[in-house]
Amino acid sequence: MNELKDKVALITGAASGIGRAAALRFAEEGARLVLGDIGAEAGEALAAELRGSGAQALFLRTDVSKPGDAEALVKLATEKFGRLDAAFNNAGISDGPMPPGIVDYPLELWDRMIAVNLSGVFYGLRCQVRAMLANPGGAIVNTASVAGQIGFGGIPGYVAGKHGVIGLTRSVAVEYGAKGIRCNAIAPGFIETPMTAPVFQVPQFRDMTAAQVPAARVGTAEEVANMALWLCSDRSSYANGGVYAVDGGFLAK
Ligand code: NAI
Q1: Residue 77 CB–ligand 1 contact under 6 Å
Q2: What is the chain's mean pLDDT, rounded?
Q3: Within 13 Å, how many C-alpha atoms sit on residue 30's CB side?
Q4: Which residues make beta-bridge pairs with 244?
Q5: Among 215, 234, 224, which Cα is nearest to 187's?
């Protein structure tokens, strides 16, 4: 119940899927929450639900691809709660399920994928690290993907952005480890969320996917949220610069 007691934690992409599951889980563990998402209605509703269950939770409409929005979210944490202890940079978009391959990949799609999935993490990290240096110390977790470690055909924007997230994670870990700031990445595999619903709600695609995973099933948002919780808590105090698979063994093959 108290894994994040009194810690101030920021979550992006909090209104849906993995981010939402993390918000619920972090609140159960006593965190004070600052939630950001481009989806204002769902985000506000989640914050109200959390407050209704006794948690302290604030929501701010945030487009992570805008540096000013990333800054405003951190400012909300430091102004309302006095500090920032943990940040889960989780907002992301998919270029799936079946976009064209590299030669036909639309340039606007490339720009959008990099803006949200890679620059969005960079903008967040800059202000989060600044705030954590004042503590000093903190834990940052970035949502990468198995697609940040291996290639997948047809989704070059997603694959490149997620590889970049792992690079940024390692850069922060190396630069700020001595200042007490830990930075780790989570690499989810095939997780059932609104993002993947168009694929996994088709039984044939779901079965085909599960067949590629040693665990023989797709994963849940809660399973990823539990890894984020551990990495944001003091229990992972010597974990820094790592990429933590939550993929049912997919990449072990
Ligand atoms: P989701 O679509 O359920 O949730 C993503 C959230 O991010 C949504 O609430 C959306 O409104 C928000 N968002 C999108 N663009 C934004 C922006 N510019 N600024 C702020 N918020 C924005 O998806 P899911 O599955 O929960 O994804 C969360 C993260 O996990 C993403 O980074 C995704 O790439 C990653 N991931 C998901 C996997 C899966 O199988 N579902 C596998 C590997 C990684």
Answers
A1: no
A2: 97
A3: 8
A4: 186
A5: 224
Cα distance between residue 45 and residue 189, in whole Å = 28
C-alpha to C-alpha distance for 38 and 145, rounded to whole angstroms = 21
For residues 225-231, give the mean pLDDT: 99
Helix (H, G, I), strand (E, B) or coil at 1: coil
- Mutate which of 11, 12, 16, 113 for ligand 1 pocket (most atoms within 8 A of beta carbon): 16
Residues known to be catalytic: 158
Mapping DSSP to helix (H, G, I), strand (E, B) and coil, where does residue 192 land? Answer: strand
Task: Compute, in angstroms, the gap from residue 238 CA to the centroid of ligand 1.
Answer: 27
Mean pLDDT of 196-206: 94
The pTM is what?
0.98
Residue 131's CB is within 10 A of a number of other CB atoms, namely: 20
Distance 215 CA to ligand 1 centre (A): 23
Alpha carbon of 91 to ligand 1 centroid (Å): 5
Predicted confidence band of residue 97 (pLDDT cuts 50, 70, 90): low
Q: Which amino acid is located at 78 in the chain?
A: T
- Ligand 1 contact, 92 CB (< 6 A): yes
Other CB atoms within a 10 A radius of the CB of residue 203 amount to 8
